[in-house]
Amino acid sequence: MSVTTSSVRPGLLGGVGWRALNALQLLFTLTWTSVLICFALLLLVLCGGRRHLPLRMASRVWAPGLLGGAGARLDLEGFEAIDFSRPYIVVANHQSMIDICALFRALPMPMRFVLKQELARVPFVGAYARAMGMVFIERQSARAAARRLHDAAAIFNEGHSLCAFPEGTRSRDGRVGAFKGGVFKLAIETGIPILPIAIEGSGFVLPAAGFKVRPGRIRLRVGTPIATTGLQPGDRQQLARRSQQVIIDLQRHGQSMDCPPPRP
């Protein structure tokens, strides 16, 4: 699968040209997101509160639009071997805000994200995320975060998956940081398998700092699901380290295939 909608090359524009183009892209991003959130919330009402269609709108309309507006091409590897009829706890490394678009587009099932509590206060985005049942956690309070994640177990009863970035923040140099144990504790408690995904190239398309978009390729490589049945709560850090290493290995494999490194 690939999404290609921009023919603008980084070398064709000077600094002023890129700033002007990025300003237009930012305006498009804000407008596209606001309009589609309004449609999604209306659709939620028309569907009687059922979230399946509004969530699919994010993957089939919103995410492709933003990826296309950024000139990003999405390459998927290994996804054909995964049984997406069952729920997973998806864990991925985090380089850019556009990672959310890439995962929404790549994964063919309804999915909720674990988000920072600060996003709940962002106009439109916070309202949409709350209505869609996204999970907000307070990074400064491990106990409150654990409680929120425990309450999120109902997501799996609906057959939906949960996606988290267990590094807790975006990497500025592409290296995968240590994984926090919260979602892995949830995986052990529920018996839901971990689905590891390595993301490469998103930090080049949209760096962690600022809004400096450049067209490029984003590759998502998925690993074999990691079973969690039979594990004990005390195994969560070991499970976190294992998942981190799987993603590092997947990322190293992808780096041999010309994905550019994140821009500083």
What best-fitting shape do the alpha-carbon axes yield?
globular
Largest sheet entry = 7 strands, mixed
How are the strands ordered across the major sheet? 1-7-6-2-5-3-4
Share of residues in strands:
5-15%
Question: Could you explain how this protein is built, in words?
Answer:
The protein is of the alpha/beta class and 264 residues long. Helices cover 43% and strands 14% of the residues. The chain has nine helices and seven strands. It has helices at 15-46, 52-70, 98-106, 125-131, 142-151, 154-157, 182-190, 202-205, 236-255; strands at 72-77, 89-92, 111-116, 135-137, 161-164, 194-200, 216-222. The protein has a seven-stranded mixed β-sheet, with helices on both faces. Strand 3, helix 4 and strand 4 form a beta-alpha-beta unit. The longest helix is centred in the N-terminal third of the chain and has 32 residues, at 15-46. It is globular, with a radius of gyration of 18 Å. The chain starts with 14 loop residues before the first helix and ends in a 9-residue tail after the last helix.
Brief write-up:
The protein has 264 residues and is α/β, with parallel strands linked by helices.
